[in-house]
Request: fold
Amino acid sequence: MITSTANQKIKRILKLQKKAKARNEEGIFIVEGIRMMKEAPESRIKELYISETFLQKYPDLPEHLKKKAEMVSDPVFAHMSDTKTPQGILGVIRRMSWTMDELLHGEDGRAPFLMVLDHLQDPGNLGTIFRTAEGAGVTGVILGSNCADLYQPKVIRSTMGSIYRMRAVCVDDMKETVRLLKQHGIHTYAAHLDDSRFYDEEDYTKPTAFLIGNEGNGLPEEICAEAEHKIKIPMHGQVESLNAAMAAGILMYEVCRQRRK
Reply:
């Protein structure tokens, strides 16, 4: 059992929790909680740590997790955890690697249905969009390099397991990426309040990509200019805009509705 916070493994976990560079160098991310660990693909679990009292609370831990687990004292686990009330289980998970070419060609016979995120900064919004995207049948997510780090612990928690299954790539040049989508016959829709059609007036049964911008400022004008269409969600009262994850969810489920019919 690891009983000291000075242990090199514990120091490394703390570094991985806090430093994106360290996570990127190893190609991993950290997950916590029994549900997230049960959903983790076995082949991608690199390391697993459990607190000394964890098995008393969760005696039905799957055998493949028990075999990988290393025991840590309760105080040390609390020190290494990123949550206020840790459940007592933490895993180091290898990332999946997707290519832009894979996203451009849809998935399982479905026409491409992509979420393109630019300057999205709130970790909770980013994780919620991933979770909603899986539920709505999105075939991939494209993130600008200016977005919040997909692999930071708060984002991972907010995905509620969708991080294991949703295909995603990060790009440096968003303008060129939007042009690439159009070259491959994917119709691009920028969420924008000005000079826009209502979102439910468009046909999304064809290959579709939604462009979602920053929570406060929306999409940069140069990115909007590259999109084929501008769309908006109707607003009543004095509300000017919706939370980015909420707006993205409304758009995603309109595609889901149209394609289901």
Summary: The chain is about 40% helix and 20% strand. The two ends are 56 Å apart (CA to CA).
